[in-house]
Amino acid sequence: MLESPSPSDHDLLRLIANRDESAFLTFYRRHQGLVYRFALQMSGKTEHAEEVTQDVFMVVMGSAKQYDPARGSVAAYLIGIARNFVLRSLERDRPYVVLDDPDGEPAWRLAGEQDALDDLTRQERIESLKKAVLALPPAYREVVVLCDLQELDYAEAANVLGCAIGTIRSRLHRARALLIEKMRTNERCVV
User: Fold this and answer.
1) Which CATH code for domain 1-98?
2) Is the pLDDT of residue 111 over 50?
3) pLDDT tens for each residue of 143-174
4) Are the C-beta atoms of 45 and 98 separated by less than 8 Å?
5) Residue 42's closest CA among 89, 112, 109?
6) Secondary-structure class of domain 114-191 per CATH
7) Alpha-carbon separation of residue 95 from 89, 91, 98, 99, 103 (angstroms)
8) Percentage helix, strand, coil for the chain under 3-state DSSP, each rounded to 5
9) Which of 5, 22, 126, 157 is most buried (CB neighbours < 10 A)?
10) Would the pTM count as exceeding 0.70?
11) CA 18, CA 12: separation in Å to the nearest integer?
């Protein structure tokens, strides 16, 4: 027995606008990971990412009719909504941004005893990179998250941020330079 092809995102949004719960669940399952990862990479906090993800899909439920495929992809639409919530969240918690998860267990402890030193070194570099990304000014952090981590192309990132492609390229170039410098400084401090 052949299954019916899955509905397109545009079809799902049209159904969501008509209050179709199963369409919403399908759309949510299809895209919640993208929204969550973006929010987590921008904020560095799981509680922010969870809250932003919930807020984004609440907006989708109420304004699915507003999506215009001519203006960009569904991913860009969702990340654009998420971006607004993340920036508000960061602004609200500005003096209290925590770069480390104090309750988190380092990944090297979960890996067992084999090559514990290599695992520790790798985890330290990953944590250092995460901290460096989170320390970037928001405009630079956004382009790194969108282009390097979420793998959006320059046009999609420009659409999400509402700026020119040249601005995306410039910010990304500057952000990468800042990250390289920060990582070099961290390596010098460790040695």
Assistant:
1) 1.10.1740.10
2) no
3) 998 888 888 889 988 988 889 999 999 999 99
4) yes
5) 89
6) mainly alpha
7) 12, 9, 9, 12, 20
8) 75, 0, 25
9) 157
10) no
11) 10
